[in-house]
Design brief:
Layout: H1 2-50, H2 53-74, H3 80-109, E1 115-127, E2 133-137, E3 144-147, E4 156-173, E5 176-194, H4 197-204, H5 206-265, H6 268-272, H7 274-300, E6 313-316, H8 317-331, E7 337-342, E8 349-352, H9 354-370, E9 376-385, E10 388-395, H10 402-405, H11 429-439, E11 443-449, E12 453-461
Parallel strand pairs: 7-9
Antiparallel strand pairs: 1-2, 1-3, 1-5, 4-5, 6-8, 9-10, 10-12, 11-12
Helix pairs in contact: 1-3, 1-4, 1-5, 2-3, 5-7, 9-11
Length: 463
């Protein structure tokens, strides 16, 4: 049964892990799709703005200037470095107007989030039938033409552009002025940076995240509840089985004695001997009383502290504990039991249900004997502090393992560690004791060390 439960719990946990992995995979896929859709949505808007005629006209002005610079280069009036330098100066002067127009158009669209845009110059090449002449090649170094200045690693390329132009220029060859042409290839790329794009995508997925986390927590809660119930049911089944076995064992002895006694009473020689007859009847009475007590114990312990009806009376603590200790000593006189009375000298009036409270304390004392060593030492100490009457019962018994202390007051619970399962009982004594103390608006606590002993501390209001 234990192996089946372990396998069931392990399988449930593995299934939960598998479901969690699938859910994480699906959420990640959804995130990627949302991210792609969001970037495409932004890209489409920016591309429309980039096609604005006013921006194209600014770009064309820069292009015409570039063609003139290259014509001067062809006539050896400019170097490649000077072309790039002058081209940058021109783009910087035009960029003020470019950004103003772009920001105005972006504001009209009202995206709801900030986007930075720029056009980078990638390369400028003069095409020739024999050998191309590269005027500029960006490589790892970016060259911004228009837009905001930001790092390329933070950006996303939305498109690449390439345009060709055939330009006529005047060239002086061997003292003669001639008209010639050159083919020009210019490559650019458009880049954008969407500020806080991750938080925007996450916000769009907020409901999905919330629903996923909620479902995940519900599944974990249901799994925990199911496993906890399974373990509790298993414990209850074990406790019930143990209780049935214990009560069956407890009932067998008086029933067997009653059977023998009833058969004896039928014999003629017993009937004719009045002393033996009366003795046998006494045995029947005692065993009948024992059976009745066992049944009453089971019935009484089915009640909770709220259902127990108390008949409280005022008692003097010194006198009460003196009588309690004397009565208990008589019941264990065949065993080596020493009881130390440390009841406080000053008399205190306490209101208790004498019958129930005595039974509760006797349960603790009887346990000290049941689970004691060969020589048993019990100390009963009382004191009153701040309106509370405190009773401390300490023994030198075999003690209780730490893992069992929290369960010691549970109904039907009996410690089954080492040789402790050999002690007879129904597992109701300490449960009943706790219910009685609770009914008196008190508390009971336990401290124990294995092989050293156990201490019970009871606190009840004096009035």
């Amino acid at each position: 049964m234990k192996n089946k439960t372990t396998i069931l719990i392990s399988t449930a946990i593995l299934v939960l892990i598998a479901l969690s992995s699938i859910q994480a995979y699906l959420i990640n896929n959804t995130y990627q799709l949302k991210k792609k859709a969001f970037i495409n949505e932004t890209t489409d808007v920016i591309s429309v703005i980039d096609d604005n005629p006013k921006l194209d006209s600014i770009y064309n002005v820069w292009g015409e200037n570039l063609k003139n610079y290259i014509a001067d280069y062809k006539n050896n009036r400019l170097t490649k470095a000077q072309i790039v330098s002058r081209s940058n100066e021109k783009s910087d002067s035009l960029n003020i107007q470019f950004k103003k127009i772009f920001d105005k158009e972006l504001k009209k669209v009202n995206l709801g989030y900030d986007v930075d845009f720029k056009i980078n110059l990638t390369s400028v090449v003069i095409l020739d039938d024999t050998k191309n002449d590269t005027i500029f090649s960006a490589g790892k170094n970016e060259c911004r033409l228009f837009g905001k200045d930001f790092k390329d690693e933070d950006s996303k390329t939305i498109n690449n552009a390439k345009w060709f132009s055939e330009q006529e220029f005047v060239e002086k060859v061997d003292g003669e002025i001639k008209f010639n042409t050159f083919d020009l290839e210019v490559k650019t790329e458009n880049k954008i940076v969407i500020k806080d794009w991750k938080s925007i995508v996450y916000k769009r997925m907020a409901f999905l995240f919330f629903a996923s986390v909620l479902i995940f927590l519900i599944v974990i809660a249901l799994l925990y509840y199911s496993i906890k119930n399974l373990i509790n049911q298993k414990k209850i089944t074990a406790i019930k089985t143990d209780f049935i076995n214990n009560i069956t064992h407890e009932l067998k002895t008086p029933l067997a004695t009653l059977s023998i006694a009833s058969k004896s009473l039928k014999k003629t020689e017993i009937k004719n001997n009045q002393d033996i007859f009366n003795g046998t009847l006494n045995i029947v009475d005692r065993q009948n009383e024992r059976l009745q007590k066992l049944i009453d114990q089971v019935m009484t312990n089915s009640l909770s502290s709220k259902e127990i009806v108390l008949n409280k009376e005022q008692v003097v603590d010194n006198e009460y504990f003196k009588n309690l200790i004397e009565d208990f000593k008589l019941s264990v006189q065949q065993q080596d039991v020493t009881i130390t009375n440390k009841v406080c000298n000053t008399e205190v009036l306490i209101r208790i249900d004498k019958f129930h409270f005595t039974t509760a304390l006797l349960n603790i004392l009887e346990n000290a004997v049941k689970y004691g060593k060969e020589t048993i030492h019990i100390t009963i100490e009382t004191k009153h502090i701040n309106g509370e009457y405190i009773i401390v019962i300490k023994d030198n018994g075999i003690g209780i393992p730490d893992k069992n202390i929290s369960l010691i007051f549970d109904k039907f619970y009996r410690v089954t560690e080492g040789n402790l399962h050999n002690v007879k009982g129904l597992g109701l004594g300490l449960y009943y004791t706790k219910q009685i103390i609770n009914a008196h608006n008190g508390t009971i606590a336990i401290e124990s060390q294995l092989h050293k002993g156990t201490t019970f501390t009871i606190k009840t209001p004096i009035n």
